[in-house]
Specification:
Layout lengths: L3 H23 L8 E2 L1 H8 L3 H9 L6 E3 L2 E5 H10 L11
Antiparallel strand pairs: 1-3, 2-3
Length: 94
């Protein structure tokens, strides 16, 4: 007699394999959140280093500071940029 848990385990393994293949095909492989310094912030925001330092001093951009080391998380910077999206006005033809 076949153990039902073995059948479930095999099916779950097959599902995990299919999901892994789909992620690789779509390029959505989950990666850990990237943490970096001012260069990461410049790359993500397309702002100058001086502007980023100004926003940091005014606490207007998400950042972390440990001693003299300033760091940023890519996901937080992207979310911060998304907050600035302007809403479109529906029904107006431009």
């Amino acid at each position: 007699m076949i153990n039902p848990y073995e059948i479930i385990d095999r099916r779950l393994s097959a599902i995990e394999q299919v999901l892994q293949e789909l992620r690789q095909q779509n390029g959505t492989q989950t990666a850990p959140d990237e943490v970096g310094g001012i260069e990461l912030a410049r790359q993500v925001t397309r702002l100058s280093a001086a502007r980023i330092y100004t926003l940091v001093s005014k606490r207007q951009i998400p950042h972390m500071k440990r001693g003299n080391r300033l760091t940023f998380r890519r996901t937080q910077l992207l979310a911060w940029l998304d907050e600035g999206d302007r809403k479109t006005m529906g029904g107006l033809d431009a």
